[in-house]
Write a structure and sequence with these properties.
This protein is mainly alpha-helical and 188 residues long. It has seven helices and no strands.
């Protein structure tokens, strides 16, 4: 297993640690630990792709597992944020539905001997989702640290990021389906 693939596996291993700190409020500074593990996992996403392309280490495992690791990380984060009332459940459902749909497409394509890599829209969507999660974990709106909202501008920025993430989710789904119509035609 090459280094980019090891980084992808490491990202998957970090997910339960991140979720633990997202959901446990009894540990002082838990959100900052969660933020640290989420940022570390997100950085592995950048570096595994960069190293794979730069050193010609792109593998079918990486093409399949890297987007799956991203989905697991993002979906875990969104569910945790939803349980903390930081992210609307209906948007989480849309995002997760998109991820299941794309995973289904990839499985069908793989069954036909084809590996489908992430598209540019999918990569942009992932970056925006990761940035949105980081902003929501930081909770800059709670300037006192005691659940008291601060400046309304931060709330507006967070809401814009949430809806941008949702819009990019839908756009990337449409782009993915349009570019891979032949996978749909393989249904019998």
């Amino acid at each position: 297993m090459n280094l980019p693939n090891k980084l992808t596996v490491f990202r998957v291993i970090l997910i339960p640690v991140f979720v633990f700190f997202m959901l446990v409020n009894d540990i002082p500074g838990a959100k900052w630990y969660a933020l640290t593990f989420f940022c570390l996992a997100s950085l592995t996403d950048f570096f595994d792709g960069y190293l794979a392309r730069k050193n010609d280490l792109v593998t079918d495992f990486g093409k399949f597992m890297d987007p799956l690791a991203d989905k697991l990380l993002i979906c875990s984060a969104l569910i945790a944020l939803c349980s903390n009332q930081r992210f609307p459940a209906w948007i989480v459902i849309i995002i997760i539905a998109r991820e299941f749909t794309i995973s289904g497409f990839r499985l069908i394509a793989a069954d036909n001997g084809r590996v489908i890599s992430a598209s540019m829209w999918g990569k942009v969507k992932t970056v925006v989702q990761m940035f949105t999660v980081i902003m929501l974990i930081c909770d800059f709106n709670d300037v006192t640290g005691k659940g008291i909202p601060g400046d309304g501008a931060v709330y507006v920025i967070e809401q814009c990021l949430i809806y941008l993430a949702m819009a990019l989710t839908v756009i990337s789904l449409i782009d993915y389906i349009a570019k891979n119509r032949d996978v749909i035609s393989s249904f019998k």
